[in-house]
Amino acid sequence: MANPNTQTRVQSDEWLCTKEVARLTKLSTSLFEKARLPGRWNGLPWYKIGGRVLYRKSEVQDWMNTFRMTGGAYHV
User: Where are the alpha helices (DSSP H) in 1-76?
Assistant: First the structure.
């Protein structure tokens, strides 16, 4: 049996186009367009439904959280 919290999340999840994802993340649309090219990977799942490319808002937020930094400044 599926987790009820997961079911609620999926049912209420919002679908976003590339421009909406770029606006939400404050990143460029070209970053997401290039990441979809064969041989590229950015870890963000995307969906091709008909001729449209869509993303789930919850998956975009989860993906952004993977870049979370803590502590002091990072020096290379």
Answer: 4-12, 18-25, 29-35, 57-65
Q: Are 37 and 53 in contact (CB under 8 A)?
A: no
Residue-level length of the chain:
76
Global pTM reads: 0.72
Contacts of 8 (CB under 8 A, 6+ apart): none
Determine how many CB atoms are found less than 10 A away from the CB of residue 63: 16
Tens of pLDDT along the chain (76 residues) come to 556 655 555 556 999 999 999 999 999 999 999 888 887 767 889 999 999 999 999 999 999 998 888 886 666 6
Contact of 57 with 14, CB cutoff 8 Å: yes
